[in-house]
Amino acid sequence: MEYFKKILQFALPYRKYGFLNIFFNILYALFSALSFAALIPMLDVLFKPENRITVKPVYTDLGHLKDYLQEYINYRVNLYSGDDQMKGLVLVIGLVLILFLLKNFFNYLAMYFITFLRNGVLKDIRNKMYQKITDLPVSYFSEKRKGDVIARVTSDVLEIQHSFLSVLELIVREPLTILFTIIIMFGISTKLTLFVFIFIPIAGMIISRIGKSLKKKSDRVQKEQGEFLSIVEETLGGLRVIKAFNAESKFYNTFKNSTNRFFKFSNTLLNRQNLASPTGEFLGILVIGVLLWFGGKMVLVDKTLDASSFIAYMGLAYNILTPAKAISKASYGVKKGNAAAERVLQILETENSITEKSDAVVKTDFNEEIQLKGVSFKYEDDFVLKSLNLKIPKGHTVALVGQSGSGKSTIANLVTRFYDVNEGGILIDGIDIKDMTKKSLRDLMGLVTQDSILFNDTVKNNIALGKDNATDEEIAEAAKIANAHEFILDLPNGYDTNIGDSGNKLSGGQKQRLSIARAVLKNPPIMILDEATSALDTESERLVQDALEKMMLNRTSLVIAHRLSTIQKANTIVVLKKGKISEIGSHEELLAKKGAYQKLVAMQSFDS
């Protein structure tokens, strides 16, 4: 129930729909019970014409309310019909039909209003989850499989709607239907109703035993669903590699094994769940059978109950079965929904390790320098950077070089605050970036990565990502600086061309130039280039390098370089080795030292 309460908090903005649902459910439950009670006068008209009441009855006390109502309806029917019994019968049938019509009308209104609440909660949970996913640090998703996260946003949230939120429809209606029905049943025969209550707890115990293991079984189903969605996501992302290595059958077998497990888990879960309905129905009919015996004895032998009241009583007893079955199914739904809610709330309640102070500074300009002061950082157990000190003055280009794993990209991740340092600090104009708002920090920076991350949208919208309300002229100007304008005009719809999933309709060089245009349009004072040319051919590299030089003009740049030919003009080159600075200086100074940098240059010259 703890998860149920947490999910119900999302229903608070829609509480007016909840109250309307409760109001109409009360009316539904009341008319549901009355519609069966109204059968008694109809049966009296049919089977007891000799008991016609021609004198208006007098109300005495609450104890005789049932008799008074029966006699009063009988009296009104006789007053209307006179000697024509068919006229009286039509009147009573009309009354029963009106009561059933009102019952179903109120049921529709109750369901109409709960629909807004259910779908509103579903919408808000999904929005909250997406907001949380975009807010959580990059490190969170290096530990999670993307497919599992997608499964939580899609199927787990739907499971909450089908299980938890469907309970909201029943939480008032079914108990009230049972309550009003039982009140009328007591009014007809206290003895018979008390007899029914002996069997209800026994039936409840049997049904609850069936539902105990549902949460565990449901959890297995949802985890496996996340597993095969991850396989699908990885397959789509790496389809070229899979085909190139003829690994289709290997991935198919992995997927098939996952769906086989899902098949087995789902069968176990659904068969356990399916047991609820027939068990509940049989127990209900068993109660009806016992009632027929006991009530029949009261009518035929003891003469303590009249036949018309007994038939109506049996209708009321059967009227309890449907809501009782719905409640037992709802209890299964809550158990099944618990597993889905737990997985959804795991994301929603995850603490963001990259926190923002309540008095965080909004920094809108960059005036002096970026300083890394005694920075140490580790992803897991071993430090990737150790006591690193570095200054990047305004207007300077600082290049980071070194072998893979030396910590180059880590510095870019720390400066943008995708991760937080373990020791030391990163300062911009003397202010620690932990003391700034994340938004204002990232507004100061533009990022061009080795993998051009583009989105399934138009060229225009991809370039305009970092600047709201950018004009067509500004977008075109940014594209010209990035050497992208010409190839964009050659596309089928120019700037309005959709570039496909991850920009797959473009070449590597074209994608990278769009990434640069995006950074140029944002026009930040600090630019971070993470191996922006390493994946390109020579011609594309020349175009991209030219675009980068135009972009870095009069700008502070932190360049992570793989190809050393691209950073010879940098003001400062920092050579990293195992998370420490081994050399620092300009291109000429470092060559003159004939140290680690000179060896790297010689190796690349030899390779080329």
UniProtKB/TrEMBL annotation:
<dbReference type="GO" id="GO:0015421">
    <property type="term" value="F:ABC-type oligopeptide transporter activity"/>
</dbReference>
<keyword id="KW-0472">Membrane</keyword>
<dbReference type="GO" id="GO:0005524">
    <property type="term" value="F:ATP binding"/>
</dbReference>
<feature type="transmembrane region" description="Helical">
    <location>
        <begin position="22"/>
        <end position="47"/>
    </location>
</feature>
<feature type="transmembrane region" description="Helical">
    <location>
        <begin position="282"/>
        <end position="301"/>
    </location>
</feature>
<dbReference type="InterPro" id="IPR039421">
    <property type="entry name" value="Type_1_exporter"/>
</dbReference>
<dbReference type="InterPro" id="IPR003593">
    <property type="entry name" value="AAA+_ATPase"/>
</dbReference>
<dbReference type="GO" id="GO:0005886">
    <property type="term" value="C:plasma membrane"/>
</dbReference>
<keyword id="KW-1133">Transmembrane helix</keyword>
<feature type="transmembrane region" description="Helical">
    <location>
        <begin position="178"/>
        <end position="207"/>
    </location>
</feature>
<dbReference type="InterPro" id="IPR003439">
    <property type="entry name" value="ABC_transporter-like_ATP-bd"/>
</dbReference>
<dbReference type="Pfam" id="PF00664">
    <property type="entry name" value="ABC_membrane"/>
</dbReference>
<dbReference type="InterPro" id="IPR011527">
    <property type="entry name" value="ABC1_TM_dom"/>
</dbReference>
<dbReference type="GO" id="GO:0016887">
    <property type="term" value="F:ATP hydrolysis activity"/>
</dbReference>
<dbReference type="InterPro" id="IPR027417">
    <property type="entry name" value="P-loop_NTPase"/>
</dbReference>
<dbReference type="InterPro" id="IPR017871">
    <property type="entry name" value="ABC_transporter-like_CS"/>
</dbReference>
<keyword id="KW-0813">Transport</keyword>
<keyword id="KW-0067">ATP-binding</keyword>
<feature type="transmembrane region" description="Helical">
    <location>
        <begin position="89"/>
        <end position="114"/>
    </location>
</feature>
<feature type="domain" description="ABC transporter">
    <location>
        <begin position="370"/>
        <end position="603"/>
    </location>
</feature>
<keyword id="KW-0378">Hydrolase</keyword>
<feature type="domain" description="ABC transmembrane type-1">
    <location>
        <begin position="19"/>
        <end position="336"/>
    </location>
</feature>
<keyword id="KW-0547">Nucleotide-binding</keyword>
<dbReference type="InterPro" id="IPR036640">
    <property type="entry name" value="ABC1_TM_sf"/>
</dbReference>
<protein>
    <submittedName>
        <fullName>Subfamily B ATP-binding cassette protein MsbA</fullName>
        <ecNumber>3.6.3.-</ecNumber>
    </submittedName>
</protein>
<dbReference type="Pfam" id="PF00005">
    <property type="entry name" value="ABC_tran"/>
</dbReference>
<keyword id="KW-0812">Transmembrane</keyword>
